[in-house]
C-alpha cells in the first residue's frame, strides 16, 4: 500500500527551503482542516494552494477555509486561482482572478482582481510567523492544541469512513471509474447512518 511504501512523509510532504517550509494543498483539500493541520505538525509555514474557483463578490467556502486554515495553524496561505477554465459548461472567465495571500492571523493581505493576468502578491513575514509560533498566547492555536486527544476521537470514529488506501486494489493503484467517488461517498453515508452519526 502507498502508506507502507512512502509513509506519512509521502502523504504530507513539507519542503524545507530558504523561503520557508512549504507544503502543497490542492484545490478542495483546503476544506479539510485535518490536511492543513497534518502539514503544520510536520513544520509547514506556507501552504501553497492551487485552485480553480468560481469568482464571487461574497466569501466562498474556500475563502473562509483559507482564512481558517491560516489562523488555525499560524501559517500563510498562498492561493493561486486558475486564469480561466475551459472544456466545461461554465463560462471561460468564471474562474479568473481571486488569487489570495492570507497571513497567519487569517487576514487576506492581498487578493487579485478579475482577469487572467491579475496577480496577488504580499511579503511573507517568516520572522513574524516564527515568533508568533514560539510565543505563549491565547492566539497560538498551533501550540495550544492536543493532538493525542483528537487522535483518539478520530481513531474511535474511523470505521465508517474510507481507509487511507482507498485507491488501492490488491496492492496496485486503482484507476477509478467516473462514479467511483460518488459510490464511495454513498457507502460512507450509509455506514454513518447505521452508526447513528448522522
Any overview of this molecule?
The chain is α/β, with parallel strands linked by helices and 198 residues long. The protein folds into 2 domains: 2-144, Carbon-nitrogen hydrolase (Nitrilase/N-carbamoyl-D-aminoacid amidohydrolase), CATH 3.60.110; 151-194, no CATH class. The chain is 35% helix and 17% strand. It contains 7 helices and 8 strands; from the N terminus they run αββαβαβββαααββα. The chain has helices spanning 2-11, 33-40, 61-73, 126-133, 141-144, 147-157, 180-194; strands spanning 15-17, 20-26, 46-51, 76-81, 100-102, 108-111, 168-169, 172-173. The strands form 2 sheets. The chain has a 6-stranded mixed sheet with strand order 1-2-3-4-5-6, covered by helices on one side. The protein has a two-stranded antiparallel sheet with strand order 7-8. Strand 7 and strand 8 form a beta hairpin. It is globular, with a radius of gyration of 19 Å. The mean pLDDT is 88.
Topology record:
Elements: H1 2-11, E1 15-17, E2 20-26, H2 33-40, E3 46-51, H3 61-73, E4 76-81, E5 100-102, E6 108-111, H4 126-133, H5 141-144, H6 147-157, E7 168-169, E8 172-173, H7 180-194
Helix pairs in contact: 2-3
Please give a quick description of this structure.
35% of the residues lie in helices and 17% in strands. The chain has 198 residues and is an alpha/beta fold.
What is the average per-residue confidence, as pLDDT, rounded to a whole number?
88
Strand order of the largest sheet: 1-2-3-4-5-6
Strand residues, percent: 15-25%
Q: Describe the main β-sheet briefly.
A: 6 strands, mixed
- CATH class bucket of the largest domain: Alpha Beta
- End-to-end span in angstroms? 30 Å
Derived from helix and strand composition plus strand pairing, the structural class reads alpha/beta
CATH topology of the largest domain: Nitrilase/N-carbamoyl-D-aminoacid amidohydrolase
Count of spatially separate domains = 2
Q: Name the CATH superfamily assignment of the largest domain.
A: Carbon-nitrogen hydrolase
Amino acid at each position: 500500500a502507498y502508506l507502507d511504501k512512502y509513509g506519512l512523509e509521502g502523504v504530507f510532504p513539507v519542503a524545507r527551503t530558504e523561503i520557508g517550509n512549504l507544503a502543497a494543498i490542492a484545490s478542495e483539500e483546503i476544506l479539510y482542516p485535518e490536511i492543513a493541520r497534518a502539514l503544520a505538525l510536520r513544520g509547514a509555514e506556507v501552504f501553497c494552494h492551487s485552485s480553480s474557483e468560481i469568482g464571487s463578490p461574497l466569501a466562498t467556502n474556500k475563502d473562509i477555509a483559507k482564512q481558517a486554515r491560516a489562523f488555525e495553524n499560524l501559517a500563510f496561505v498562498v492561493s493561486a486561482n486558475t486564469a480561466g477554465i475551459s472544456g466545461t459548461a461554465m463560462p471561460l472567465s468564471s474562474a479568473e482572478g481571486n488569487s489570495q495571500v492570507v497571513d497567519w492571523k487569517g487576514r487576506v493581505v492581498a487578493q487579485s482582481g478579475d482577469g487572467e493576468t491579475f496577480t496577488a502578491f504580499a511579503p511573507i513575514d517568516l520572522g513574524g510567523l516564527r515568533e508568533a509560533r514560539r510565543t505563549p498566547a491565547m492566539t497560538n492555536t498551533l501550540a495550544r492544541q492536543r493532538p493525542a486527544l483528537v487522535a483518539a476521537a478520530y481513531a474511535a470514529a474511523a470505521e465508517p469512513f474510507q481507509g487511507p488506501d482507498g485507491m488501492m486494489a490488491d496492492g496496485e493503484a486503482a484507476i477509478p471509474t467516473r462514479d467511483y467517488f460518488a459510490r464511495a461517498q454513498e457507502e460512507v453515508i450509509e455506514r454513518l447512518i447505521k452508526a447513528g452519526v448522522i
